[in-house]
Amino acid sequence: MNLLDLSNLGALVEDLVMGDTITISRPAGPPVLNPATGELEPPPEHVVYDGPGAVLDSTATPGITVPVAGQPYPDDPKTTYRLLTPASAPVAARDDIVRVTRAARDPALLGRTWRCTQPGLASTLIAVRVTWIDENNPARSSP
To answer: I need a surface site. Which of 18, 43, 82, 132 has the fewest CB within 10 A?
Structure first.
């Protein structure tokens, strides 16, 4: 059986678009009591992925659905960001945290975090992995 291989397309997208370094992490367990403060604190994070990626906003190829002829609307107006990682990257889980640790072009990405709103997409034909993300701190001013 000869299946279509999109790995060359994925490598091209990685070379041309994924200039940032992305870290995907998740809590390593339940919150931990800090005896000094009496507060529950998040546990240390477990890094799931650290490597090339790109954060795209809603202006980058927005999805359009046409439920009634002539009345297009955005698929998901609340989730305006997408994360691209190589197809070989692990699939992010819902509520994983995404950080840009090195920004190739836009320094405003540094210091911001996003939450994965659903597991990373999987497909029989895949060039790059796409994960829908929502910004954790949208009101924060850029550095």
So the answer is: 43
Cα–Cα distance measured from residue 78 to residue 27, given in angstroms and rounded to the nearest whole number: 24
For 2, half-sphere exposure in the C-beta direction (CA atoms, 13 angstrom radius) is: 0
86 has which bridge partners?
128
Question: What is the distance in angstroms between the CA of the first residue and the CA of the last residue of the chain?
Answer: 52
Report how many helices (DSSP H) and strands (DSSP E) the chain contains, helices first. 1, 10
Q: Which of 37, 121, 40, 45 lies closest to 85 in space, CA to CA? A: 121
Give the model confidence (pLDDT) of 44-56 as tens digits: 899 999 999 999 9
| Beta carbons within 8 Å of 82's beta carbon, 6+ residues apart | 55, 56, 60, 130, 131, 132, 133
For 114, the 3-state DSSP assignment is strand
State the pLDDT at residue 87: 93
Q: Are strands 73-74 and 81-86 parallel, antiparallel or unpaired?
A: unpaired
Q: DSSP string of 7-51?
A: HHHHHHHHHHH--EEEEEEEESSS-EEETTTTEEEPPPEEEEEEE
* 60 secondary structure, DSSP code: S
Q: What is the pLDDT, as a whole number, of residue 78?
A: 56
